[in-house]
Design a protein that fits this description.
The chain has two helices and five strands; from the N terminus they run βββααββ. By secondary structure, the chain is an alpha+beta fold. It has one domain. The protein is globular.
Length: 97
């Protein structure tokens, strides 16, 4: 089970933030997904190889900077290392593969 959280935007969309281990191995990453609802966000991640992604609770909701980053990205899906500082930019999901 992943740690993270979500927030609902005034438009009705949902931003989900999760701390995951990438399918290829390595350190944890923080993934931010913009979607119509939480289930669609999890479906997008499952389709990209993150099997069994679930969220229990809202312990680590996305920050304002994370919401802004995902809103300005055309895919609505960004990531970076979980331990990265704010100086490190968000990357497109295609850079992870």
């Amino acid at each position: 089970m992943a740690t993270g959280g979500f927030t609902r935007l005034p438009s009705g969309d949902v931003v989900v933030a999760l701390r995951l281990s990438p399918p290829s191995g390595g350190g944890d990453i923080r993934v931010i997904v913009l979607s119509a609802n939480r289930q669609r966000a999890f479906t997008r991640l499952r389709n990209l190889g993150f099997r069994g992604v679930r969220l229990s609770g809202n312990a680590e909701p996305p920050t304002a900077d994370e919401v802004r980053a995902v809103l300005h990205h055309p895919d609505g899906l960004v990531w970076r290392d979980a331990d990265a500082t704010d100086a490190v930019g968000w990357q497109a999901f295609t850079a992870l593969r």
